[in-house]
Amino acid sequence: MEGSIKCNANYVPLTPISFLERSAIVYSDKVSIIYGDVTYTWSQTHQRCIKLASSISQLGVSPNDVVAVLAHNIPATYELQFAVPMSGAVLCTLNTHQDSSMVSLLLNHCDAKILFVDHQLFDIAKGALEILSKSTTKLPILVLILDSDENTSVSSNTLIYENLIAEGKLDFEVRRPKDECDTISISYTSGTTSTPKGVIFSHRGAYLNSLATIIINEMKSTSVYLWCVPMYHCNGWCVPWSIAAQGGTNVCLRNVTDKDIFDNIFKHNVTHMGGAPALLNMLINSPIRKPLSGKVVVMSGGAPPPPDIFSSAEELGFHVTHAYGMTETYGPASICTWKPEWASLPPDAQAKMRVRQGVQHVGMDELDIKDPATMKSVPADAKTIGEVMFRGNNVMNGYLKDLKATQDAFEGGWFRTGDMGVKHTDGYIEVTDRATDVVISGGENISTIQLEGVIFSHPAVFEAAVVGRPDEYWGETPCAFVKLKEGYNATEEEIIQLCQKHLPSFMAPQTVVFGDLPKTSTGKTQKYVLRGKAKAMGSLYKKKTLAD
Amino acid sequence: MEGSIKCNANYVPLTPISFLERSAIVYSDKVSIIYGDVTYTWSQTHQRCIKLASSISQLGVSPNDVVAVLAHNIPATYELQFAVPMSGAVLCTLNTHQDSSMVSLLLNHCDAKILFVDHQLFDIAKGALEILSKSTTKLPILVLILDSDENTSVSSNTLIYENLIAEGKLDFEVRRPKDECDTISISYTSGTTSTPKGVIFSHRGAYLNSLATIIINEMKSTSVYLWCVPMYHCNGWCVPWSIAAQGGTNVCLRNVTDKDIFDNIFKHNVTHMGGAPALLNMLINSPIRKPLSGKVVVMSGGAPPPPDIFSSAEELGFHVTHAYGMTETYGPASICTWKPEWASLPPDAQAKMRVRQGVQHVGMDELDIKDPATMKSVPADAKTIGEVMFRGNNVMNGYLKDLKATQDAFEGGWFRTGDMGVKHTDGYIEVTDRATDVVISGGENISTIQLEGVIFSHPAVFEAAVVGRPDEYWGETPCAFVKLKEGYNATEEEIIQLCQKHLPSFMAPQTVVFGDLPKTSTGKTQKYVLRGKAKAMGSLYKKKTLAD
């Protein structure tokens, strides 16, 4: 429009770096991080990050080089969420549960120039570098992160995290992105369904998701966030940047145990946390559980929470919000936003409302369920199944070095999640199954999530996962893997009968296996492992048996 | 980065239109607007806006054409904040206190294609069109907004607002901006210091400011906002869009009187409102004032609030936040964010902290005080005066059809506010004077704001404004215009002595004039009018008198 100018005064590329710079002024003396006896203020965190960025740059890292981190939820991991982008580099936080071989593969894939490593994971890192050294001479520089009270003897040529900060320059000129769509981080998917892919986040997406997270969770500058969600999991769902934007307080947590969680909640008056339903399950079944002294808002994602978890958690004082998303959507992308009118529903109906994946959050533009072939929206009839698709600034830039996979994911101008679901009449969506997790038995699609919900309602059941067991006659039959609560018992027959009572009988599992469930490090059940087990069992029905 | 794609799936131009579309799903049955006996839900508001956008488009409006609105804070004004951008057009809300001559000038300047007009302002609009018709044949189409219960007889060829909605099409394809930097609105400045300029807002700036506003004010989906800030004033500080983003409730208010404000606060459990200090002053001095039943967060801007207002307002239950900004920054751009440690200060010291203009909000990138000649930052010493400058996505695109003024405003890559101020050691800024309001007496800069603060502390004073009275010897002398509270008395001598007691004696006013203060429609004192009066008084000291 005539009279307009686009210049530095009115156009600044969006980046979460600005949140830290602002909090260093507005909340300078307010506590930014608590970790055991260690505390920092926002002014200190800002200064430490500038100095760290200066040292990262001094180590020869150029803009867009990747800096990797292999560490638990300790203060360094938080600081690196800012310091790496501030150096102009791209952050890649690695899953702490991976072995040396996988770590070496990922370091190689993203061509990491530096690897920051938690002392507890030093051996994995060294192992990874050893493997890497067989195929390349350009190894990442290793930087060791020690806990402050630590006296680990390290070889004199090992770089130490705190030394990098001490030696860094406070007058370092922070390198902000030239274009807000530039890469801020690479997050490898946790590999529930395939080998890890490197998901590319932009400064713009990170900025917008951080603000949306504050709004969804109604976070205030007085909010205290307990770090249960791993920061390597899509940058801790972007919450590190949200807390800086709002000037709240981070409580770091090395060991995500029931004791450490309850202790920290009480000691630091925690107001917010996040975690997979498995984490909530652990807390509500913990022998040391006790009613909280204040409300703790929990954003729960990573898997659909079994209905019972809500009520049990709320009895203790947790206020659970069900979120749904994936690494490709910067973490939570839809929220089952509570509607006041649900309060008058009976508990069962309420629970059914709450396990739905809901509606896109304020930062995500569109959420739809579409027929993946025609790209037409399914009717909002709570029945017609289609693919869950997103569109918005909180969808990744793409998969690192895998243009084909990016193109496939964005085919038709929408991000295709691969998850299947229905749209309810109120516009809320419900995921019925991950595309690869649907059990198709005798031509009927069986929702393993529905089945798992019913099994979970059995009082003895701690966890449940259903997969397809290959079958010569039916194609597949549903096979349930169940972990019982300590000191409880249940039989295969009981579980099957329970399912038959609540669902069409063809949906009931034909097999129930009791035992521990294999998990990814982010708490998701590794269904592909269970699928392998089910496959190994062989067919339940023989073609000829049924032909007889 | 290799593997990235920028496409519809992951890049959507930012626009507040998305807020309404989302709230229509998430908060479909929740009340969006209350106005007397009229209420709408978010689903209804969404549908009404689509139909209105369809009708606007049917009237022949093309993308980027301007649609003007001359109306009080009624539901139509709220709806037009969405419907006009949804039609692809640019919204221009006009100051309701202007006369036909000014309205015709502005309509002509922005080349408005439609003028929506409140029935109470119909005569002004008709007068404006009459004036316009003398110089052009392309007059804007007039659309009359009637209150729902109204039976005004109108000529049959006059378009009626509700008819446009009734006739609009629900399947209209909303026209989102192609580029997020495209213009969403034009807001004419209120003309405190010069003739109105047309400030251009972008969809991007509006989107980001709306989210920042939610965060600053800690607004929830349960928040209820009372419309005291005129929606013609930088689009109601972008709050119409914030409320839609969070799914809160708007309480519209035609008459901004103490009675209507108190009535609505109690009736609808208002949680948030905004307004100039003059509005707060009216409330705390109202004979019908009474303690609120719940806390009401008030963002106060438009002028620095005299210290006493905070405590008096808080005694009633208002929680006042001091914001600072201007049309060019989409309304509030900095906030005097409360620091918990201030709670332990004595009331006087607390008040001093709170009248400062503070720090940039989370949506504004940088705030600085710079020497306007060298563009160097002034030291944070609370003494050195420089010009207040902003940089960020919440700075306007420019002034409509006035590239020269835009270039001047952005000279050096910062938005130059024209206001002078200091930076305190904690990084908070304090505006000492508007560039044109400094009184320079005998070469000394006198802060009229400081002077006004002292005068205001006199128990009989209701309002005070100081300007320079031209003087042959001193250049200028400070001249105070004072309005006393009803039933109170004070003398010129008392006021002068009070100032001499609290400030260096050269700062004390040499003249005190009692009476009403001239105001702009947004509650700002029109200092240029007072300056005219002071000039008419002539010089207090004669050159030769002092040469004797």
Outline the structure in words.
Two copies of one chain form a homodimer. By secondary structure, the first copy, chain A, is of the alpha/beta class. Chain A has a domain at 438-547: 2-Layer Sandwich (GMP Synthetase, Chain A, domain 3), CATH 3.30.300.30. Chain A has 18 helices and 26 strands. In chain A, strands 2-1-11-10-12-13-14-15-16 form a nine-stranded mixed beta sheet, sandwiched between helices. An eight-stranded mixed beta sheet of chain A has the order 7-6-5-3-4-8-9-19, sandwiched between helices. In chain A, strands 17-18-20-21 form a four-stranded antiparallel beta sheet. In chain A, helix 5 links the parallel strand 5 and strand 6. In chain A, helix 1 runs parallel beside helix 9. Chains A, B: It is found in: Cytoplasm, Cytosol. Chains A, B: It comes from Medicago truncatula. Chains A, B: Residues 451-524 form the AMP-binding enzyme C-terminal domain.
Level of helix content of chain A?
25-40%
Q: Strand-residue fraction of chain A? A: 15-25%
The rounded Rg of chain A comes to 24 Å
Major sheet: arrangement of strands of chain A:
2-1-11-10-12-13-14-15-16
Q: Determine the CATH superfamily of the domain at 438-547 in chain A.
A: ANL, C-terminal domain
Number of helices of chain A: 18
Query: On the 0-100 scale, what is the average pLDDT of chain A?
Result: 91
Largest sheet of chain A: 9 strands, mixed
Q: Write down the oligomeric state.
A: homodimer
**Most extensive interface: pair and counts?**
A-B, 70 and 71 residues
**Span between N and C termini of chain A?**
79 Å
Organism (chains A, B): Medicago truncatula
EC number (chains A, B): 6.2.1.12
Protein name (chains A, B): Fatty acyl-CoA synthetase family protein
GO cellular component, one term (chains A, B): cytosol
